[in-house]
Amino acid sequence: MDKCKEVQHYIEEFDKGNLSLKKECEFVSHVNQCKYCREELEIYYIIKYGLDESEDKELKSFGNLNDEMKLCLETFDFSSLVDLKLKQSIKKCENIKTWNRYNKLRYMLVQLVMIFTIIVFLIIRFY
Hints:
elongated
């Protein structure tokens, strides 16, 4: 239950995209497994977008959403909106993790080339 409280504390930050990669991955993983936290996320969207009668504010807040998400908001399909946001976040986490793995491999390759260069230099210099 403590994990649920922690996750629910991050709902607004998740919506704004302000979570670190690690926190976002943990958040999404928990929300996908916990029906209570998923309901809380859905309620958050209902309150944020569904109960707001100001169309100008609502349209401005749609700016960072894709067309599929905008359609969910316009039709008040908040369950589908949660699904889309979670899928988008999972894809983002996977892409960043993959990018980080490639960066580590590139870094190791550069180090190996540098070591090889030093060895070759020493061989040429002293032989």
